[in-house]
Amino acid sequence: MDIKDFKKFHETVLPEFDEFLTNKINAEIKQPTLRDAMLYSINAGGKRVRPMLMLAVVYSCGTKLEDLYQYYDIAGAIELIHTYSLIHDDLPEMDNDDYRRGKLSNHKKFGVGPAVLAGDGLLTQAFYWIAKSNLDTSKRMAAVRILAHNAGPMGMVAGQMTDITKEDRQLNEEELTTLHKQKTADLITAAITIGAFCAGHDLSTHLVEYANYVGLAFQVKDDLDDFGSEEDADKNTFPNLIGKDATEEKLRNLVKDALNAVLKEQKFDKNLMVSFLDYFKD
Amino acid sequence: MDIKDFKKFHETVLPEFDEFLTNKINAEIKQPTLRDAMLYSINAGGKRVRPMLMLAVVYSCGTKLEDLYQYYDIAGAIELIHTYSLIHDDLPEMDNDDYRRGKLSNHKKFGVGPAVLAGDGLLTQAFYWIAKSNLDTSKRMAAVRILAHNAGPMGMVAGQMTDITKEDRQLNEEELTTLHKQKTADLITAAITIGAFCAGHDLSTHLVEYANYVGLAFQVKDDLDDFGSEEDADKNTFPNLIGKDATEEKLRNLVKDALNAVLKEQKFDKNLMVSFLDYFKD
């Protein structure tokens, strides 16, 4: 493994992966409005953290850089799911966001009906990409199972439902942890564990622990980044519940726990997973 | 094969299958609003035509009645997908239907946000059910592939997008046929072909032809049933395009073509598939 730094890995793989995503959607989706709406959000400036984490795990397990393309379908499926969730979350009767990363949200650009369908299209196509990948059937099936479990009504969708139906009251710390776990951590955990499955790595509890801590750290960092903004005021977030300082300490502890977990990992090169944790120090 | 009549088959299998659907969702979905909203539409009086067609194919291929339960996960997945599509289609910025089968539509009962999420939950859980089924991995993978292809942005979702973006103009006959094929026929076709795959039947072109004719006949019958109603007036339907009589003739021809196709089928008992065609004579 030549690349030992996650930023470097990200920089190296991203351009080819971005091109893959756009080309594949362009080739497959013939309905013009649907294709445009799907591509609009896929190319709206996301950092591709989830698929890059998945590919980083595959790479850490010994796959060469030039062979990583074989895992792009599965990594792409994870990004399709993440993108669909953002489109539906932004809808007027959900979080009601007109902008995302400085661009109009999907429903402001295409209308609510098309945005719902663009989301439905991305979500369903994710499973098509996995089914059509060239990996072993058992690996593909594990990817379908983990992704559907963690992104569906036992995971991410459940978290979003709790979020929109509980906005009028303050959740307690345990409830908020469950919400964050489902809404954000579950898809991150899926990306990491799917990577390990696809690379043929015998999944260790250490890697699963790492994934869980990283996933939760993700949402806590997000809460901190948004803290004090107008939209943030009524939301169920850790800084609103326990204060900024205690939340910052919480984030440091999660990162430390993630580090300790991955350092126990015996079976693959830990460099990328360790260096990914720098993400939370920005 | 003791049951040779589709209505009898439907009557025999439905109670157990209905119970299976409710119990499984109740057991799996812990988020209370999400569980309620998913169950509300699952139990809103649907006839389960798609899963019953799938199970009828499995039965026709030689599976005993008492062994059919092994295929309920996959049949259930098809019903989850169908149900999600109804919830999203009814949304205000889609077809804007306040009622379905005499009951409040999902978003009128639970709100638009929860209805979007109930749909997302049903759609994603469909793939989880397939992944967790006890059938051979290769059969499960075929089910994922066919379902995602036919229900997603290359099939049903594309049809719905064409429908909501073209409502202001009259499609021509070819465009309307494509719309109906994607919006309705593709999921029916999926149900029949998945049944054949899961039963280990070497899929013949005859059965695929049958499935395609039956799927289109479904939407044409639906168009005829709704013809003359207030909501129907502006819609792209065959009666609005070519008149009621010509549409009735079209339906008769589709049923005849379906019959001719399935009669060529050599490898399984054709009785149920033939008797299913009575559905279009009501």
UniProtKB/TrEMBL annotation, chains A, B:
SUPFAM superfamilies cross-referenced by the UniProt entry: Terpenoid synthases (SSF48576)
What this protein needs as a cofactor is:
Mg(2+)
Does the UniProt entry include the keyword Metal-binding? yes
Reactions catalysed: isopentenyl diphosphate + (2E)-geranyl diphosphate = (2E,6E)-farnesyl diphosphate + diphosphate
Q: Which CDD domains match?
A: Trans_IPPS_HT (cd00685)
Output one GO MF annotation.
Answer: (2E,6E)-farnesyl diphosphate synthase activity
Question: What keywords tag this UniProt record?
Answer: Isoprene biosynthesis, Magnesium, Metal-binding, Transferase
E.C. numbers: 2.5.1.10
- Which PROSITE patterns is this protein grouped with? POLYPRENYL_SYNTHASE_1, POLYPRENYL_SYNTHASE_2
Pfam families recorded: polyprenyl_synt
The UniProt entry's GO biological process terms, in alphabetical order, are:
terpenoid biosynthetic process
Specify the superkingdom: Bacteria
What family name appears in the similarity comment? Belongs to the FPP/GGPP synthase family.
Family matches, as PANTHER family: FARNESYL DIPHOSPHATE SYNTHASE
Write the protein's name.
Farnesyl diphosphate synthase
Which organism does this record belong to? Companilactobacillus nodensis DSM 19682 = JCM 14932 = NBRC 107160
